Amino acid sequence: MKCAILERVHRTLRERLYRAFTYRDSYKYYDILPELVHSYNHSIHRAHGFEPTKLTTDDEPELYKCLYHSNVDPQFSFTAGDIVRLSKARKTFRKGYLPGWTEETFRIYKRYPMIL
């Protein structure tokens, strides 16, 4: 799982914990933790509009479409037959005066459609 997703989960759980701490005027969390996790798992998530407990492997294509589908058609910069150079990996302490592109040139032979 990606760190950004886990960090978002942690943030949400922390917000709910502190909301409960304020309401109860206590920092004891072990007695409310099961209720908190149950509440999180039965909440509709804004990113995909589903409750995590109700998702199954049958819902995977629809979930993927909700998360990653864009209504905007991708704009391609290159077409078959174009001559290109590849960008070299940019590292933190790479010297700025060194070339950022390969010396070799490549011809685009075929472009595959994007899978959505």
UniProtKB/TrEMBL annotation:
GO MF entries: nucleic acid binding
SUPFAM superfamilies given in the database record: Ribonuclease H-like
UniProt xrefs under InterPro entries: RNaseH-like_sf (IPR012337), RNaseH_sf (IPR036397)
Protein name: Uncharacterized transposon-derived protein F54H12.3
